[in-house]
Amino acid sequence: MKVNPDNWQQNFAQDFGPVSHVETGAVLFFEQGSFTTVQDRASGGEPVYALKSHLWLSILISSLALAPAASLANGPGQVESQFDRLQENTDEETFGFREGSVVVAPVPFSNPMFGSGLALGVGYLFKDKARSNTSVIGLGGVRSDNGSKAAAALINLSLDNNRWKISAFAGQADVNYDLFIGNRPFPIKQDGLIGRLQLAYGPTETFSFGTTIRYLDTTVAPELPNLPPLPPPVSLDASLKLVTFGINADWDKRNDSDYPTEGQRISFAASYGTSIEGLSRDYEKAWLLWDTYMSLTPQGVLAFRTALCGASSETPFFDQCSIGGTDAFRGFSSAQYLDFRSTSVQVEYRQRLNKRWGVVAFGGIAWAGNTFDQMQQNGSHSAVGGGLRYRVSKKFPVDFSVDYSFNNESEQLLYIYVGQRF
User: Fold this and answer.
1) Rounded Cα gap, residues 262 and 258, in angstroms
2) Cβ–Cβ contacts within 10 Å for residue 258, how many?
3) What is d(CA 191, CA 183) in angstroms, rounded to the nearest whole number?
4) In angstroms, what CA-CA distances link 322 with 256, 285, 405, 409?
5) CA distance 255 to 345
C-alpha cells in the first residue's frame, strides 16, 4: 500500500523523526532546589556533566511526545540518539546511581505539523563509570495549540563504560496533523500507545550492535466529523496493533557527538513487523545512514549525509520511508513524501563566527517511489537554505539552531531545534 506523498518521520524514542521543535529563549532547568538557565550552567554548577543531559532530556521529551505515535519505525531517532552519544564532560565527576541529579526542563516548541506549545521533562541523570555515557530515567508531557498532546516515560542506561546499553520507553499520544494524499493535505487525528525495549552491546568503543522490540496500538481517523472517510490505502491502517522486531548496528568514528569536525558514522537498522490484532499484516523495513565530516578551516566544517531506505509493500503508511523523517531532510514536511523506497543526499557547511555565534548553509536532493527504479520517474525533491547557530554552553558545543529552507516547489519552511541536524 502506498500513499503519495505520505507519511511520517522518526519516532517516539529511538525512531522519532527529524526534530523540528522550537526552543525560544533560555531554557530553564530545576535542579537540587533552584532554577538556572542554560547559560548559568555553562559557567559553573554541580555536577558539570548534567548540562548536556539537561538539554537532551528537554529535547527528548518534547520530540518524543510530539511525534505521532505511529511514526515509531521511521528512522534513527534524532533525539534519543543524542542520549546514546553523550560523553563525559569533566574529570571531576562523581559516579554511581546515588551521585546523580534530578532535573526539570520546561521547553517551548513550535513546528509546522503541530503548532506551538510547551513540553515538560523531569529526569534523574547519573553516570555508571568514568567512560560511560550519561544514563537517564525520565518522565515528560507536551501539549500544543492544535490540540496535540502526549506523555512518555523512559529509562536509558549506559553501563560498564558503554559496553552495554539498555533502553526502555513507553508513551501515549493523541495528535492532529495533515497527511498528504496525492498532493493535498488531509487533516487526520491519530492516537497511539507504544512500548519499546532495546538492548545493545559494544565490543569496541566505536562499534555496537543490538536488538529492539516495539509494541504499537494506534488508530487513525479524519480530524473533523464533516470530513470524508479515510481514503484507501490509508483506511487499511485505521486501527492496528503491531509488534516489531529489529536489529541495529552503529559504527561511530566521529571526534565529537555534538559538533563533529572530523570522522564518519554509519548507522543501520532492519525490522520485521506483524499485526496482532486488526487487519493481518507482515512487513519489513531497513534503512542506512552514512554521515561524513571534514574540517576545511579552523572554524569551518563540511558535513555530508547519505540515506537509503526500503520497506515492503505491506508496510503501514506511518512506518514507510519518509523524506524528512528517515533522513532529517530539511525542505519538506515529514508527512509529505513517503513511499516504499527513498534515498537522499545532503551537504551542509558550518562556520563558527565567534565563541557564541555560527552560521550554516545547506542543500540536498531526495527521491521517493514504489521501487528504486520508479524513484527517478517520480522526479527529485530538492531544497537549499541557511541557518543561524547560538552556542548555549561555553563548555560544550551545544547550539540552538534556526534554519530556513526553500524547496523546488516554491515552498519555505522554518526549523527551530537544539543541536545539529546530523
Assistant:
1) 12
2) 20
3) 24
4) 27, 12, 18, 17
5) 22
- Residue 288's CB is within 10 A of a number of other CB atoms, namely 18
Distance CA 197, CA 94 (A): 28
- Smallest CA-to-CA distance from 307 within 284, 291, 283 is with 291
- Residue 292, classed as helix, strand or coil, is strand
> What is the Cα 420 distance to its own chain's centre?
11
The reported pTM is 0.77
* CATH code of domain 28-418: 2.40.160.50
Distance CA 202, CA 151 (A): 31
At 397 the three-state DSSP class reads coil
- Closest to 53 measured CA to CA, from 126, 128, 158: 126
- Spatial distance between the Cα atoms of 257 and 401, rounded to a whole number of angstroms: 16
Interatomic CA distance for residues 192 and 413, integer angstroms: 27
How many other C-beta atoms lie within 10 A of the C-beta of residue 374?
14
The letter for the amino acid at 289 is L
Query: Which regions of 182-234 does DSSP assign to beta strands (E)?
Result: 184-201, 207-222
- In the block, residue with C-alpha cell 561511530: 252
Nearest Cα neighbor of 251 from 198, 291, 303, 309 is: 291
pLDDT, averaged in runs of 10, over the chain (422 residues)? 33 32 34 35 37 44 40 35 33 56 72 74 81 82 87 89 90 88 86 93 93 94 90 87 96 89 97 87 96 96 97 93 92 88 97 96 96 87 96 77 92 84 91
Q: Are 34 and 190 in contact (CB under 8 A)?
A: no
Beta strands in 34-90 (DSSP E): 34-37
Domain boundaries in the chain? 28-418
What is d(CA 172, CA 218) in angstroms, rounded to the nearest whole number? 10
**How many alpha carbons fall within 13 Å on the CB side of residue 143?**
1
- Which cell numbers in the block locate residue 286? 531497513
Q: How far apart are CA 329 and CA 363, in angstroms?
A: 9
Residue type for position 169? F
Residue that the C-alpha cell 511520517 belongs to: 8
